[in-house]
């Protein structure tokens, strides 16, 4: 048993027990250096009787080598790669340098790691231990974090030890165990027996319960190498204690330890080769081995503790460290040679800068974008002229953006922009900065940056300028800034693109619509959509915004469905939150509420797993709206208030619109009509589908309050939009609004006729409810009952409980008692993921196929099926295929 760590040991052993029962689990163990994180991992390895064990660690000097740590961890399992789905196997081979990388999404590597771990756990439970995670290269850290969030039913226990630093291993949403100092009784047991009594209290005070400090400081005190009353932080104290142990070694041993500390792999051959170049004898390492400072096993030099390694390196003079790196550069591969030469450089050096640039490209080819950014940035500062420095900083900014480091990308772009006046480079930097600003939730700033970047290239590259202005107009609309929309439109008009140019038509159309000129904008937008048929993912992505602006919900749903399938098949995980967001919204608007909730929930989880903060707020707003319709006030408020806070902080009003609409819908379903109307009328006005759809609920609240005059202006705009769009569903909603305002049966029947042309079960049910209420109030109860019955049944299928209750109350008032018990739905007990799994299984897809599609492990898929079959009353996949799963 570890001294003073009984609770921590129980937590680890509980996870091991779960793995033996087939479950999966992860635990991030945090603590200051010396708190016993590694010892806890060692205990887990000893306690994992009968389990397979994989062990890896971050190495401080490997932090810029993409996927180095993941390769080290998974190397014993690479003979299983053929068991993975082909795209995942190709992803791992590519990033490990075993095959070329072909357009792989970096998050696909994390999914591949999950599948590989699951494959290893098929035969027996698997324990995966990762030490010093604060020094994992960013690519490995991202892959492990992605995989760990999906450990559910794999029989895999993943223990990750990291320092308690703010920028250490990213563990948002993962369970954590923090190691504090030992209680005094346990601390005293770790003190050296020979420690004089007068020093015991001082050591106990300085160590503050840190096990390593208790051992090393008491040892230093016993040997007379520790000064009392110091004020250094504990980590520095420990490093001083290790420095004292190193200083007792002969000078050649100290120099050889410094070489070993500087060599990232610890490869003995490399260390001795560099040492030989420096005139250090090969046997100089022996005193350090005898002192227990390092061990040499399997041809690798390993330090007893990372702080000891740091002490060995920092103990050398800066001139000595530069000489060491020059010597190592002659003993390693070309990629690592560039880094050693960079660390040895004392000023600008174009030869080294060029080598680092090649290293950056190699890192990018292996999806190591964070390392790519670092290599380009270092190359920039070794550049011999300003032009090359600007170009390399711009490349570093682009790589940082690809790595999801928005703040870093913006900072690098700003520094590069200060060094160049080249319009093409400045335009590229504007796009990078704009993306970073949007990622950080500043759409107005993103729009402004794009407009400024497009202006200088308007004469030389009008199509690129138009593309930037289209994005600027969209971002300005997201930020609710009509002045920026108008500015983008004016600049576009000066580009002189021909009227038949599709990009020009799209940009002008969106600018007109976002600026309120529907009559000019919709013909342009309609023309673009009629002729646009891009085959590639990037081209299809450009359609997602305009199809929603135009209200083409069926096209939006088909496009989003196709894009989601392609992103899954091609492993484009980073795009999935955006695409699934669009799919969820199209499903919500067409009345497929359960499917919408499932898509939004999946998108939200992937966005969180991949560190994409911006889409999470809109997704929460959508889930809040669905919760309001279902009558779940607590869940609605929790989801919506996050979106409101985000919008207020960053000026992203459509996100605020969705959250506000959710809260207003909650008020409407709870009979708080005044609150609903006030909330909706406080929103910024807009002239596209996104903002005008809200008018329907605004009208209902105003009519119920007896103040229809308050909504005549927004309804008139909605009517203009509906007529220009020509969409039947929009015409149906406008007709229902006029039926409510004008007490007009003709408008209600017109609405129902239009609903038959465009399936929208939720909106159709609301129209039946409104018409049924209208008929009942006129004592036409027999005519009202079919409409109220249709509404109640539809709302129950949609799980829209408040609306179903209202329809049932109206039906009773019309003289018909509805059934007291709702019809049982076999699919109601399924979780969102279970439903996705059984639908795919019913098509004949294997567990492995389903896992790749849903970003899960095959074992998790099997567990979902195991739980879903009894809920559906089936025992085989054949029986699944007979169920109408699309109706669940």
TrEMBL record:
InterPro entries: AAA_16, P-loop_NTPase, Sig_transdc_resp-reg_C-effctor, TPR-like_helical_dom_sf, Tscrpt_reg_LuxR_C, WH-like_DNA-bd_sf. Pfam families: AAA_16, GerE. Keywords: ATP-binding, Nucleotide-binding. One of its GO terms (molecular function) is adenylate cyclase activity. The keyword Lipid metabolism does not apply. One of its GO terms (biological process) is regulation of DNA-templated transcription. GO terms for cellular component: cytoplasm. It comes from the Bacteria. This is AAA family ATPase. The lineage of its organism: Bacteria, Bacillati, Actinomycetota, Actinomycetes, Streptosporangiales.
């Amino acid at each position: 048993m570890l001294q003073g760590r009984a609770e921590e040991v129980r937590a680890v052993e509980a996870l091991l027990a779960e793995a033996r029962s087939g479950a999966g689990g992860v635990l991030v163990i945090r603590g200051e250096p010396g708190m016993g994180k590694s010892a806890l991992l060692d205990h887990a390895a000893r306690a994992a009787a009968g389990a397979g064990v994989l062990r890896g660690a971050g190495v401080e000097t490997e932090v810029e080598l993409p996927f180095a740590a993941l390769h080290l961890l998974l190397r014993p399992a690479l003979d299983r790669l053929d068991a993975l789905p082909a795209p995942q196997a190709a992803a791992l081979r590519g990033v490990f340098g075993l095959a070329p990388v072909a357009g792989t999404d970096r998050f696909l590597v994390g999914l591949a790691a999950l599948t590989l771990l699951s494959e290893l756990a098929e035969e027996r439970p698997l324990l995966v231990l990762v030490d010093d995670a604060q020094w994992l290269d960013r690519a490995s850290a991202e892959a492990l974090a992605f995989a760990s969030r999906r450990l559910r039913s794999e029989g895999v226990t993943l223990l990750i030890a990291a320092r308690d630093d703010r920028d250490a291993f990213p563990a948002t949403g993962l369970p954590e165990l923090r190691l504090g100092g030992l209680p005094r009784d346990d601390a005293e047991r770790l003190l050296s027996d020979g420690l004089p009594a007068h020093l015991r209290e001082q050591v106990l005070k300085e160590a503050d319960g840190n096990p390593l400090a208790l051992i090393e400081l008491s040892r230093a005190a016993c040997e007379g190498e520790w000064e009392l009353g110091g004020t250094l932080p504990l980590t520095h104290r420990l490093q001083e204690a290790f420095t004292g142990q190193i200083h007792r070694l002969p000078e050649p041993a100290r120099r050889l330890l410094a070489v070993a500390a500087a060599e990232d792999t610890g490869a003995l051959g490399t260390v001795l080769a560099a040492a030989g170049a420096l005139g250090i004898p090969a046997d100089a390492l022996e005193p350090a081995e005898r002192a227990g400072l390092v061990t040499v096993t399997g041809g690798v030099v390993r330090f007893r503790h990372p702080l000891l390694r740091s002490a060995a390196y920092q103990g050398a003079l800066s001139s000595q460290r530069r000489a060491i790196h020059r010597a190592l550069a002659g003993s390693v591969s070309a990629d690592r040679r560039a880094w050693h030469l960079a660390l040895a450089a004392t000023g600008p050096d174009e030869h080294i800068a060029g080598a680092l640039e090649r290293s950056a490209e190699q890192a990018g080819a292996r999806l190591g974008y964070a390392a790519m950014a670092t290599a380009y940035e270092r190359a920039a500062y070794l550049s011999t002229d300003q032009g090359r420095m600007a170009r390399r900083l711009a490349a570093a900014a682009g790589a940082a953006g690809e790595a999801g480091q928005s703040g870093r990308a913006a900072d690098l772009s700003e520094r590069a922009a200060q060094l160049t006046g080249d319009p093409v480079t400045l335009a590229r930097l504007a796009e990078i900065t704009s993306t970073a600003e949007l990622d950080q939730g500043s759409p107005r700033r993103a729009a402004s940056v794009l407009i400024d970047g497009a202006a200088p290239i308007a004469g030389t590259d009008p199509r690129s300028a138009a593309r930037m202005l289209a994005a600027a107009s969209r971002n300005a609309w997201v930020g609710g800034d009509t002045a920026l929309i108008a500015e983008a439109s004016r600049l576009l008009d000066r580009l002189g693109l021909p009227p038949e140019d599709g990009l020009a038509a799209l940009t002008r159309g969106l600018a007109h619509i976002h600026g309120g000129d529907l009559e000019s904008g919709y013909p342009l937008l309609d023309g673009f959509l009629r002729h646009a048929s891009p085959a590639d993912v990037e081209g299809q992505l450009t359609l997602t915004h305009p199809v929603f602006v135009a209200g083409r919900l069926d096209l939006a749903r088909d496009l989003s469905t196709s894009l989601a399938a392609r992103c899954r098949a091609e492993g484009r995980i980073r795009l999935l939150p955006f695409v699934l967001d669009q799919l969820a919204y199209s499903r919500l608007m067409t009345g497929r509420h359960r499917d919408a909730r499932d898509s939004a929930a999946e998108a939200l989880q992937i966005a969180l797993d991949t560190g994409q903060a911006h889409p999470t707020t809109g997704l929460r707003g959508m889930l809040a709206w669905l919760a309001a319709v279902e009558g779940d006030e607590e869940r609605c408020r929790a989801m919506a208030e996050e979106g409101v806070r985000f919008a207020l902080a960053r000026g992203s009003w459509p996100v605020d619109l969705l959250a506000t609409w959710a809260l207003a819908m909650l008020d409407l379903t709870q009979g708080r009509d005044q609150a609903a109307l006030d909330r909706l009328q406080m929103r910024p006005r807009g002239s596209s589908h996104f903002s005008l759809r809200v008018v329907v609920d605004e009208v209902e609240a105003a009519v119920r309050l007896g103040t229809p005059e308050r909504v005549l202006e927004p309804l008139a705009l909605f009517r203009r939009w509906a007529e220009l769009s020509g969409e039947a569903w929009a015409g149906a909603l406008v007709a229902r609004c006029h039926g409510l305002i004008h007490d007009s049966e003709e408008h209600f029947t017109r609405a129902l006729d239009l609903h038959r042309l465009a399936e929208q079960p939720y909106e159709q049910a609301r129209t039946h409810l409104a018409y049924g209420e209208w008929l009942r109030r006129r004592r036409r109860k027999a005519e009202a009952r079919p409409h109220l019955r249709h509404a109640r049944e539809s709302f129950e299928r949609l799980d829209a409980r408040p609306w179903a209750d209202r329809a049932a109350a109206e039906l009773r008032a019309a003289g018909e008692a509805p059934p007291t018990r709702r019809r049982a739905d076999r699919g109601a007990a399924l979780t969102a993921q279970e439903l996705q799994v059984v639908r795919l299984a019913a098509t004949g897809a294997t567990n492995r196929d389903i896992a790749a599609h849903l970003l899960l492990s095959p074992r998790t898929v099997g567990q979902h099926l195991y739980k879903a079959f009894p809920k559906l009353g089936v025992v085989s996949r054949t029986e699944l295929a007979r169920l109408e799963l699309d109706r669940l």
